[in-house]
């Protein structure tokens, strides 16, 4: 149980990552991914990478610079411009709906203007899901200068789009619906220099 704990990615740049195991019964037509990150990186870095054999950027949360997030579905992306962080924890949730192609992005419990992405697409179920690296091939092909360095916590993946109330609940660490990946019952494997530590503050 990772309650009140974090993954600390200690090196910069790094070849380390964390593999997440999720039991996906079928391809995703809707999903929400949420996580909390704390870093002083200004270079590009990957937060959450979900790759299939057919598509390395099936789902990707990527931060090319401090004032921008990129959200990929099926190799295409939309950009969300954000205020440059105050060197504090940032909580992000990104959700996507195949039927409308609507991509939602929430930062610290607040929604950004919705954008259109990959309407009618289906996300494959057989996936390599990694924290801290961006996959250029299934489970590998890393560029160390896209690696994450810092602290990651509160990682979730749902096979639905969360309601606004639940998006805010995720930011506030309140009770959440059952998830494919849930921080308090995460099945994971650390590869390389990543340490599990207690969170320094709430």
List the helices and strands and how they pair.
Layout: E1 5-9, E2 17-20, E3 30-38, E4 45-51, E5 59-65, E6 68-73, E7 76-81, E8 90-97, E9 102-107, E10 110-111, E11 115-116, E12 128-131, E13 150-158, H1 164-171, E14 188-191, E15 194-198
Antiparallel strand pairs: 1-13, 1-15, 2-12, 2-14, 3-8, 3-13, 4-5, 4-12, 5-6, 6-7, 8-9, 9-10, 9-11
Describe the structure.
The strands form 2 sheets. Strands 1, 3, 8, 9, 10, 11, 13 and 15 form an 8-stranded antiparallel sheet that branches. This protein has a 7-stranded antiparallel sheet with strand order 7-6-5-4-12-2-14, with no helix packed on it. The longest helix has 8 residues, at about 165-170. The chain contains 1 helix and 15 strands. Strand 8 (about 90-95) and strand 9 (about 100-105) form a beta hairpin. It has one domain: Jelly Rolls. The model has no long low-confidence stretch (mean pLDDT about 95). The chain has one helix at about 165-170, and strands spanning about 5-10, 15-20, 30-40, 45-50, 60-65, 70-75, 75-80, 90-95, 100-105, 110, 115, 130, 150-160, 190, 195-200. The two termini are about 15 Å apart. The protein is mainly beta and about 200 residues long. This is Pentraxin family member. Its main location: secreted.
Estimated structural class: mainly beta
Ends apart, CA distance between termini: 17 Å
How many distinct helices? 1
How many beta-strand elements?
A: 15
Largest sheet: 8 strands, antiparallel
Number of domains: 1
CATH fold category name = Jelly Rolls
Q: Please report the first level of CATH classification, the CATH class.
A: Mainly Beta
Tell me the radius of gyration. 15 Å
Helix content: under 10%
Architecture, according to CATH?
A: Sandwich
Give the overall pLDDT as a whole number. Answer: 96
SSE sequence, one letter per element: EEEEEEEEEEEEEHEE
Q: Which regions are unreliable across 5 or more consecutive residues at pLDDT < 50?
A: none
Q: DSSP strand (E) fraction? A: 35-45%
Overall, the morphology is globular
């Amino acid at each position: 149980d990772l309650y009140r704990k974090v993954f600390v990615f200690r090196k910069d740049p790094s070849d380390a990552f964390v593999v997440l195991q999720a039991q996906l019964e079928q391809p995703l037509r809707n999903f929400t991914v949420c996580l909390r990150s704390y870093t002083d990186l200004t270079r590009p870095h990957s937060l959450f990478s979900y790759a299939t054999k057919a598509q390395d950027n099936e789902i990707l949360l990527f931060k090319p610079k401090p004032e921008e997030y990129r959200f990929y579905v099926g190799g295409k992306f939309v950009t969300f411009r954000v205020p440059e962080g105050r060197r504090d924890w940032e909580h992000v949730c990104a959700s996507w709906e195949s039927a409308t192609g609507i991509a939602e992005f929430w930062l610290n419990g607040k929604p950004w203007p919705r954008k259109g992405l990959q309407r009618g697409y289906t996300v494959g179920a057989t996936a390599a899901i990694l924290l801290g690296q961006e996959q250029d091939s299934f489970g590998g092909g890393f560029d160390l200068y896209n690696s994450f360095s810092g602290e990651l916590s509160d990682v979730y993946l749902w096979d639905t789009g969360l309601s606004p109330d639940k998006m805010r609940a995720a930011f506030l660490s309140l009770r959440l619906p059952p998830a494919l990946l849930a921080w308090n019952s995460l099945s994971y494997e650390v590869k390389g220099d990543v340490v599990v530590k207690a969170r320094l503050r709430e």
